[in-house]
Amino acid sequence: xxxxxxxxxxxxxxxxxxxxxxIAGLTTFMTMSxxxxxxxxxxxxxxMDWGAVFTATILASIISTLIMALYAKYPFALAPGMGVNxxxxxxxxxxFGWQVALIAVFVEGIIFLIFSLFKIRETIFDVIPKNxxxxxxxxxxxxxxxxxxxxxxxxxxxxxxxPVALGDLSDIRIVLTFAGIIITMSLICLKVxxxxxxxxxxxxxxxxxxxxxxxxxxxxxxxMHSLIPTEFFSPPPxxxxxxxxxxxxxxxxxxxxxxxxxxxxxxSLLFIDVFDTIGAVIGVSGKAGFIDEKGxxxxxxxxxxxxxxxxxxxxxxxxxxxxxxxxxxxxxxxGGRTGLTSLTVAxxxxxxxxxxxxxxxxxxxxxxxxxILVGFMMVQNIVKINFNEPxxxxxxxITILMMPLTYNIAEGIMFGFLSYVILKTxxxxxxxxxxxxxxxxxFLIMKLVTQALTGY
Length: 456
What we know:
By secondary structure, the protein is mostly helical. The chain is built from 20 helices and four strands. It has a two-stranded antiparallel ribbon. The protein is globular. The N and C termini lie far apart (51 Å).
């Protein structure tokens, strides 16, 4: 059995082993497991049943990640994407109903499959200039680190006249976040195998100690929940009532939306998903060393096909579209190099269906340090960017800058692409713009115009 696994995933060829892949998968899962709770919280705002979305989120993650593991054989984990779920709930769901949003995701998934069959997304990936690819990976690193700072309460918003500021240092959660950073940094510097995973577990354990001695006072009103699970097993809720079939049933007498609005919603979903996935794949692949000397990723078509199938499955089950998670970098940094890593993630998602009370108590301050340090490790490619050539360096800088500041990978890519095309044009270097990049630029301008006119 062991030999079959090693041969199927070509572990020796990828300089890894079963133990490393399992630890990498566990680490990736721990850093992205927040989606299990967060996604139902967001989609329930639009009127969807929380329990149904909880189950749909996990099932969609299992199926899409399994396809990635067994078909594409990369250590990329998939789950309903952050950003697109907010668009699903707050922009579409609250305006037209969650049923329309779910149907739009299904149609978008079908379009994704067509894109995959005709290698459209593969073409987009291949034509991105090398410096922009490096910038995308770096920008995602900063974005992940920023997410970690926000999750840990170190950086906060809603301060008068200040977009972001330092959090309240008297908050024990921030203290524990800083402690987790020190613990995880120390483990990394000491070259401890599984440093990121042990960082999460030790920080969580430290939090439990603080709770037991009274330093961490449970108060749900301010988001301080018990760190000790009161139960370990819970059967998964049914998805009946909040899936694609019930959505079609509810809108059988009319969508309640004009065809133009529906097309714009599809356009927006496609934009977010295409560039979120491309960005994550570039970032994680670059760190893992999967991208060849020409800037291409082998089997990229299988990666995008897996992602497209995941989106269709997600809509059928009753959740927003899946995406390749940038948090997969955490597993890659633990040595994960093959589909066995993502297979492990899928298995852990499966367990979480029945052990949700345990995963639900893993605090943000335990995973935040890992995200921050993953960010550090991902920005290292910035030294390879050619900043000496302004038409290459400025777009790269804009890409890196806009990802964390807009809190959106796709937006960062959009502004980086547009600035690249504009600068090459005004400096008389149009020949350096390939036809695909020019078409993408037109597409992005249309996106900005429609967003300005419609708000989508």
